[in-house]
Design a protein that fits this description.
- The protein has 465 residues and is mainly β.
- It folds into two domains: 2-378, 6 Propeller (Neuraminidase); 384-463, Sandwich (Immunoglobulin-like).
- It is built from two helices and 38 strands.
- Strands 1, 2, 27, 28, 29, 30 and 31 form a seven-stranded mixed sheet that branches.
- A hairpin with a 5-residue loop joins strand 13 and strand 14.
- The longest helix is centred in the N-terminal third of the chain and has 10 residues, at 2-11.
- It starts with a helix and ends with a strand.
Length: 465
């Protein structure tokens, strides 16, 4: 069955320049947001994000492992109900496990480590007096961890190998969401200065290994400039991606790329109308930079949540080599973009698929920007766990668990497109089940099946007139 599923999945992919391309969603029943994706050392792709599909009113960390052609291997939740957990960034550790940082409960930073099968190893919650979230996790050279917490200022956390705090340092008057450890064992953070009289500048702060500030550089002009991503380059200079504010009414900010030397002096800057900067990274073999941004969807005004994705390849001087737009959908974009071992690029995020819900998306481009334009839903039909037919339907729908699942259907829950539970059926204990939908209004619905071996199987169906 696994070989058949892989063959079917390859039929849904495109191969260009010897590289597999895909554009997939992994739909479930509620709000699912992709925050970060990496390629594991074994060549599989690991996605983390936040999901309400396990408990409708409760977010959990969601971890998905997919193979090199985008096929779902497993989909797991890590969290405690009714506590809420959110994941924002992800790394693979030196011991081949994984660490994320994010937020837990209402406002505390969160660090969590899990193994290669998605099982929790440890988790840490750090108390805060502000609404606080952990961003931009990394592993220190001595196998501890670091991340930043922006609130009214910025706090840098450095921990040991099991997440216990070694030291924290607060940097006043700056709000930074991106941090790296530098080659001298210190750190660099970027973001913006705290706004004063309507003005804020992009800031770069260099910090030593004890947390002391060595120097600070600012960039930009009048207005509210900001930065979201920093990388140290192979020559020990820095690359910053942000946005520049021209202070023109109802005109979006320009994407602002800043290249500095090792002490923060400007080497060059580039301004392009590419959208809101999310992440920038130096490509392998010093082959330029890859940038992810979101731009406002056609017909929408700034400050809405309707965006399309833009991926831009830059040369080493910041000149554009190619641009790829993913439009026609309402996207949110994750916090990184990954260059894969075949030279292509991988990014995650979410797509708003109806009035209220969002699905995790995973997009694979090749090294020269070729991509699959049509989004494909590969949830249940590919892994053969559940067959729902006929779909769309008018009066009844049949559910059947395929051979890749174990156990029988024990419970069914149905949700409407607003995420509201509208029907529960208990004590089914069958592998095949029929549901009467004559009383359902026309529209999209989501199902969640629980089996006797405690598997959760999800999908969607359409009721038409």
């Amino acid at each position: 069955m696994k070989h058949i599923a892989t063959f079917l999945l390859l039929l849904l992919t495109t191969i260009a320049n010897g590289q597999v391309l895909f554009n997939y969603t992994y739909p479930k029943v509620n709000f699912d947001y992709g925050a970060a994706v990496i390629e594991r050392l074994d060549g599989k792709y690991l996605i983390v994000g936040s999901s309400r599909s396990q408990f409708v009113s409760d977010y959990d960390v969601n971890v998905l492992l997919v193979d090199s052609v985008g096929g779902l291997i497993w989909d797991k939740y890590i969290g405690q109900s009714p506590r809420m957990e959110f994941a924002y960034s992800l790394i693979e550790t030196k011991d081949s496990n994984f660490v994320i940082t994010g937020r837990v409960n209402s406002s505390n930073p969160y660090l969590m480590k899990f193994n290669s099968t998605g099982n929790l190893i440890w988790e840490k919650e750090y108390q805060s007096y502000f609404w606080a979230e952990g961003f931009s996790v990394g592993q220190t050279y001595d196998s501890g961890y670091f991340f930043v917490v922006p609130d009214t200022s910025t706090t840098l956390f450095v921990t040991n190998a099991i997440g216990d705090t070694l030291w924290t340092k607060r940097y006043n008057s700056v709000i930074c969401r991106s941090v790296i450890q530098t080659t001298d064992s210190g750190f660099a953070i970027t973001g913006s200065t705290v706004p004063t009289t309507g003005n804020q500048e992009i800031v770069l702060v260099k910090i030593n290994s004890s947390g002391d500030t060595l120097w600070t550089r600012t960039f930009g002009g009048e207005g509210k400039d900001n930065a979201n991503s920093i990388q140290q380059l192979s020559d020990n200079g820095y690359l910053i991606a942000g946005n520049y504010d021209h202070q023109l009414f109802d005109v979006e900010k320009e994407t602002f790329i800043i290249r500095t030397d090792s002490v923060g002096n400007t080497v060059w800057t580039k301004k392009r109308y590419l959208g809101i900067a999310h992440f920038i990274k130096e490509c392998k073999n010093n082959n330029g930079y890859i940038l992810s941004t979101t731009n406002y969807a056609m017909g929408w005004i700034p400050n809405t949540d309707e965006y399309y994705l833009v991926i831009t390849k830059l040369d080493t001087l910041g000149n554009i080599e190619w641009i790829r737009n993913f439009d026609g959908y309402a996207y949110s974009l994750g916090n990184n973009i990954t260059q894969t071992s075949d030279g292509g690029y991988l990014l995650t995020g979410s797509i708003k698929n109806d009035i209220a819900t969002a699905n995790i998306v995973l997009i694979k481009l090749d090294s020269i920007g070729n991509y699959v334009s049509s989004i494909i839903d590969i949830s249940n039909p590919i892994n053969s766990q559940v067959i729902a037919f006929p779909n769309p339907t008018t009066d009844e729908i049949n559910f059947s668990i395929g051979s890749s699942a174990v156990g029988k259907i024990m419970q069914m829950k149905i949700y409407n497109s607003y995420g509201q539970e509208i029907k529960t059926v208990n004590e089914i204990s069958e592998t095949h089940f029929k549901l009467d939908v004559n009383s359902f209004s026309k529209g999209l619905y989501f199902y969640k099946l629980t089996t006797t071996d405690k598997q959760t199987l999800t999908g969607k169906f359409m009721v038409r007139e």
